[in-house]
Each structure stands twice: as C-alpha cells, then as structure tokens.
Write a structure and sequence with these properties.
- The protein is an alpha+beta fold.
- It has 6 helices and 9 strands, in the order E-E-H-E-E-E-H-E-E-H-E-E-H-H-H.
- The strands form 3 sheets. Strands 3-4-5-7-6 form a 5-stranded antiparallel β-sheet, with helices on both faces. A two-stranded antiparallel ribbon has the order 1-2.
- Strand 4 and strand 5 form a beta hairpin.
- Helix 2 runs antiparallel to helix 5 and helix 3 crosses helix 6.
- It starts with a strand and ends in a 17-residue tail after the last helix.
C-alpha cells in the first residue's frame, strides 16, 4: 500500500506509512479540537500528536454527535466508518484515509486522517486516467451498500490521489445504495478489480480475519448481507444498472 502523504507541523511534505498513521490515530494525544459547522452529525477537526510519529490533523466523529436515523441502528455510524476502512484495506484499496476508533474530547468515535483536497480538480471533469480509481470506489460502494456517495465524498487530494470519505451510512442489511458514480452501468468490472476480489475471497486467512474484525462492528444480518453482495458481484463480474429513482441522488439525472 502506498504511504499516506501528510503535512506534519514543521515538516512540510513529510510522509507517514499506514501503520504510522494508525499509531497516531490510536494513541495520539488530542491537542486541539474545533467543530466543523456543516453536516447532520457533529464533526470535529482535531490535531493529534505522538512523540515518535509526529503531528497531523484528523476528522473526529463522536458517537454522541450522531443524529438518530430511522433506518440505521443508533450510535453505530462511527463503527461503519471504521468497518469501511477495514474492508477497503483488506482489498488492497487505499482510497479511504486511515481510520480508527478512539476516544476524543466528546467520547468514543471515529478518527480519520485528514486529507486536503485539490480545489482545482472537479469530480465532474475528471479525465480518462481516473476511470479505474472511480470504478474501484464504485465496486466498494456496491459491496458496502453505501447510501451516501455524494460528490464531495470523493475527491482528488493535493497528493494527486483519489480519495473517498464519509462512510457512516454503509453496510445496512437492506438495499440502500445511493451514489453519484453511475457512469459504468452494465459494464464489465475491470480485470484488476476482479483479481482483487478473488484474491481476498480465496485467501481464507485474510478473509476470515476481515469478517472477524467486522463482527465487532456490524451485526450478523449486516455481515451476511455483505457476503451476499460480495459473492453476487464477484460472480456476475459486471456493474449493475442503476435505478435513477432509487440509486442516484436527486439532481444527477
């Protein structure tokens, strides 16, 4: 997996490996905490510091700040953020910034490394070189049953990589897919993505480790539904046709 590029305080352009980033998220000290005044749930940007790793910004979403939803169990969105990272990491897809569960000023919640977006790049005007990264994210969203893939939840960072964020509304046992990435309807899933799916599912050690990890974050019905979606997509090998009244957010059709 590629290193995650960060701007550490006093070390412009320094980089961290994923393991270093996870150490910072798990064991870093919260130095500052500021509320971000948008979104339906309370979200904060925090400064984390670690004596050996350094210092970086992270996005902190406490369980206490989650707005109740009728179709998701209360107090579980932060777990789904972490479960999404675990699934993407198991597949070898590094588009979700390192994410962990930790304690902050407002209690337990998700901590995700902050990645700054390149404001010069528009998702609607990406060239063909971004086709495969978007197809990878679309495949993930199909497996994770992502109900909230908005335009701002997928972006190119200042490091030149494609990133995906905000995965709290995932892994519902009922079909909930809502995504702005629908340009690949009916197309064959690229061979490289299919190879990643097969590589994970055929390696019982890695696959069982993933399911064991998700068992601490999701309920049994949600895991069973995840396995059904995974198997169906791997067997079919094609992106499904989107229903504009069900799968595509209003304003994109």
């Amino acid at each position: 997996m590629l290193p995650v590029v960060l701007n550490l305080e006093g070390k412009k352009g320094a980089s961290l490996t994923v393991d270093q980033a996870m150490e910072l998220l798990h064991n870093g000290k919260v130095e500052t905490c500021h509320h971000l005044p948008w979104g339906s749930n309370y979200t904060f940007v925090v400064t984390l510091s670690h004596e050996t790793v350094g210092q970086a910004l992270a996005i902190y979403k406490p369980q206490r700040g989650e707005a109740p939803l009728w179709d998701f169990p209360p107090g579980t969105l932060y777990k789904r953020e972490y479960a999404s990272f675990e699934l993407a990491r198991a597949l070898g897809w590094g588009f979700i910034p390192p994410t962990a569960i930790g304690d902050g000023p407002y209690g337990v919640g998700s901590m995700q490394l902050y990645v700054e977006s390149d404001s010069r790049v528009s998702l609607q005007r990406l060239g063909p070189e971004w086709r495969l990264p978007l197809q990878q994210i679309m495949t993930f969203d199909l497996i994770a049953n992502n109900a909230d893939r908005k335009t701002g939840h997928c972006f190119v960072g200042n490091d030149g990589r494609m990133w995906g964020i905000d995965h709290g509304l995932t892994f519902n046992a009922e079909p909930k897919l809502r995504t702005v990435i629908w340009a690949f309807d009916g197309e064959a899933i690229p061979d490289s993505i299919m190879a990643d799916l097969l590589s994970l599912s055929s390696n019982r050690f890695r696959f069982d480790a993933l399911i064991g990890s998700l068992g601490n974050l999701l309920d049994q019905q949600e895991i069973e539904s995840l396995l059904e979606r995974y198997e169906s997509l791997a067997n079919d090998g094609r992106f499904p046709q989107m229903d504009p009244y069900k799968n595509i957010p209003r304003g994109f059709w």
